[in-house]
Each structure stands twice: as C-alpha cells, then as structure tokens.
Amino acid sequence: MLEAHNLHVWFGAGADKFHAVKDASFSISQGESFGLVGESGSGKSTILKAIIGLAENWTGHLTVDGETLGKKRNRNFYSKVQMVFQDPYASLHPRHTVDRCLSEPLRMRKTSNIDARINQSLNDVGLDPTYRFRYPHQLSGGQRQRVAIARTLIQDAKFLLLDEPTSALDVSVQAEILNLLNDLKRQKGLTYLLVSHDLAVVSHMCDRIAIMQAGKIVETIDKQMLRTATTETDYAAALISASHGFKRSTSQI
Amino acid sequence: MTALLTVEDLWVRFQTRNRLVEAVRGISFSVGRERIGIVGESGSGKSMTGRAILGLVQHPGIVQAKRIDFKGRDLTSLSDRDLRAIRGQHISMIMQDPKYSLNPVIKVGHQIAESYRLHHKSSRTEAKIKTLEMLEEVQIPDPERVFNTYPHELSGGMGQRVMIAMMLIPNPEILIADEPTSALDVTVQKRVLEIMDKLVRDRGMGLIFISHDLNLVSSFCDRILIMYAGRIIETCLAKDLHNTSHPYTRGLLNSLPSLQNPSEKLPILNRDPRWKEEPSVNAIREYSNA
Known about the structure:
The complex is a heterodimer of chains A (253) and B (290).
Chain A: E1 2-11, E2 18-28, E3 33-37, H1 44-52, E4 58-64, E5 67-68, H2 75-80, E6 81-84, H3 98-108, H4 114-124, H5 141-153, E7 159-163, H6 171-188, E8 191-195, H7 199-205, E9 208-213, E10 216-222, H8 223-227, H9 234-242, H10 248-252
Parallel strand pairs in A: 3-8, 3-9, 6-7, 7-8
Antiparallel strand pairs in A: 1-2, 1-4, 4-5, 9-10
Chain B: E1 5-15, E2 20-31, E3 35-39, H1 46-53, E4 61-64, E5 67-70, E6 73-74, H2 80-86, E7 91-94, H3 98-101, H4 108-119, H5 124-137, H6 143-147, H7 156-168, E8 174-178, H8 186-203, E9 206-211, H9 214-220, E10 223-228, E11 231-237, H10 247-254, H11 274-277, E12 282-283
Parallel strand pairs in B: 2-12, 3-9, 3-10, 7-8, 8-9
Antiparallel strand pairs in B: 1-2, 1-4, 1-5, 5-6, 10-11
Helix pairs in contact in B: 4-5, 4-7, 5-7, 7-8
C-alpha cells in the first residue's frame, strides 16, 4: 500500500533549517496496521504530513498504491488516503454541522446520493442519525472523533493515517474508538498507519511497529517482539520499560 | 502520623443559565503524610476537588463544605488574605501544563525566586541562591542557564520541573499535583515522577495526585480515591487496585489496552445510571500515632 524510501523532511531554510525526518524507509502492505512510536519531536507526525501533502519540503521516494507521489497530490489521491487528527476538538469546523462537514468532500467530487451516503457513514461509525444536524460543540470528544472517522470513510478511503487518534480521549472512550477502528478495518479491508506515543495502544492495534528517535527510525519490530520487549536498541528497550508505569525501586537507588 | 488535611462534605456547584451543575457532590477524605491518588474520567470532579481546597474555584462556582480542616484551621472560614498565606506556603498546587501556568514574559528564575520571597523575608541574592539549589534538586542540569531563560525556551519536561521547583521552594506540607505529567512523554514522565517522589519522601509531605491514568496512580500512590460524577465511588490501597470490586473501577481497568495481556476486543465500559445515585464513600482515615 505504501512504500517509503530514504524519506527526508525538513522545515525552514538556511540557519533555521530543521531536519525533522532523516532517511526513513518502511513499507506497509495492503490491510496491515503499521505503528510509529517515539517521543514528541521524533518526527512521527511529520511522516504522516509528508504523505498526506501537508509538509512541502521532502525528498525521497513515496509510493502509495503503486502510484509515485510528486509535489502535488491530485483529487484521486485523497479519495484513497485520508487522515484523522489528534484533537477532535480542533479538527472539526465549529460552525459547520456534522451534515455539512460530511457532505463537503462529496459535493467537491460531485458525488450523487449524498444523503444516503451520509446516513451510511454515520451508521458505520456507530452514530445515531439524529446527530446529523448537530454542531461539534454539541458532541462529546468520542463522538467528534467518530465524525472525523466518518469523514474519511465517506470518501471510500482505503488507507487511513491516524495521528494519535485517542490521546485526547478518556480511557473508556479510547476503548470504544479503538474497537471501532478495528471493526472497520475488518469490514472494509482498510490499511492503517497509526502514530501514537502509547505503546499499549500501538501493540493492541498494529502488526508491525517502527520506533523513532530524533527523526530516525531506529528499529522496526513486530507486535510480538514489542510485547516480550525483545529489542535490539537500547532506546527501544528504554521506551518500553518507561511505559510499564512507575517503579519505585529504580528511584530509590 | 496525623491527618494534615480533612475535607468533609465538599460540594462545588456552578450556576449556569439553564441549570445547576454539581461538579463535586459531597465528598469527604483526609490526607496525612502520604500519597493520595484521585482518579476518574474527565468531568468526574477530580480537578475541582483540588482547586476547591485552595479556594481557586472561580465565579460562578460555589464551594461549600462542612469543613476543610488544615492542621486545626478551617479553610472555609478564612478570609482571602489569610488563605493566601496558606496557599503556596503550606499547600501548593502543580498545574497540568507548564506552557499555560508560567508567566511567558518573566524569566523562570525570577518566577521561582518570587515564590520564595513571598513567603520568606529574604534578600534577592539569598532568593537566587535558594532558587539555584532548588533547580538543582529537580535535576536541571545547568541551573544557572535555566535561571535566565523564558518559559518558551524550555521543553515540556523542563517546564514541568520548573513548576515543581516553584511549588516546592516555599516548603509546603501538602502538594496538590493536577495531572502533572499528562502533557509529557512517557520517558520524561518517568523522570518527573521520580523527582516528585524523592522530594515528597525526603520532606515528608502529603501529596494529592490527580490523574486519569489508573496504572500510573496505582504504581505511584499509597491510597486511591476513585471519583465518578462528583462522588467518591470507591477507595482502596494502591496495591489493591486490581482487586477492586466496583463495576466502574473494573470497567476503567479493563478498557485499557495492555502490553502483556493482549485481547482481540477491548471491553467497553457500560455506565449504569444508578452509579450516580450511590452515596459517596467516606475516605477519611483514622491516623494512628504509630
């Protein structure tokens, strides 16, 4: 589904140039869930931005579904690839109803039977049709994230870029959204690229995981290796042990 | 060990245009020289509890309590002026996000020194020395440099350490930490917690640790209060968290994805409307002198 070779992304120029992603290479096959983990500033979200076309300065080879990506993305690309952002409170237009938010991409692409498709997509993400004419502020965080997911599905996207989709949500709501994503993946054969700092979430969702540090992919491991903490690099081991909660014994030395 | 703080029947209400919102509904608990964790989902009233103790609930919020007893003084009856003397010097609070809690146009060193000088009569030089000592204590590698930086020049983890330094420099007896590490990365989070843990233990302080992260609280605190809809729904010792019985606590614990015990589908928490009506658990503890 996705091939990335020697991907470099940077921001700014001259003395202010910041090299956010350095020489990242990975590939994701159809129907797979791939995870990117790392601390903030390690460049995991930047990779998503480069793929979706929100970061302009990049070099390397990006291929999505057999199509090599250039500087510009065409409309056809966005019907295949869509992104879900971290903060559902910020990623929906506050003055647009759910209906408008979902119908806009369809009207842009001059699709027919908009009405039926909106109802279908709301149904897919487990939202009652009565929510269709509500504004984002009338919805809870979990419901907003469902709308954001519905917005990607309504365009029949097959490849979703998920940027920390549950980090702004409570654990109980997080469970609902993760289950929803897994169900949708099974029903529709979706491919996910999930960014998260929560290793437990990544191990629940993803088949293979790339660990990033300071812009580089330091290690790519699979789900089983993450669970048993079989890693080659010290950084990956430190990251896994840090996510096991606070241990008093280490601090008493 | 005696109780430092005893809160009895605390209510926080907000009068809005349409209805009265009850954020905290009659909770009672006590804090000794121990680490108390308050956990719950957003909107369960855990942050409001912390704020109400310090009188930081803003208009139109109304705080009512039978008593908030801090070492024999009832905080509910104190004037703003007297409360200010307690706030900071005896009870202080670390906020969630250092980005929004530090003054962006004052150097962090001066902010920390100010908090020292407010509570101790001292010269500027003495305050500066104390500040540098404190920065060292929160394991900031180059205190002299950090003293002269502005908040935006610091990373999240450094900012949070500066906050901790600022709150601990007056040497309070109780520290209220409202999600002190939620905005931080796991690796940084661990270091900040280690620093807090050491300082709290060395100084024999009482700690109220507010968080939504059940596993973190169970590994960090001594005693846990679980809040739901403004009430304490269950209380337990931290080590017994995984043996708790209330369906809400169980539901929260089960809905967490786990590294060690993978499951195909995460159990979803089904909220029972009756939980809201359950009486609040009294978490006032008898402290023996042992």
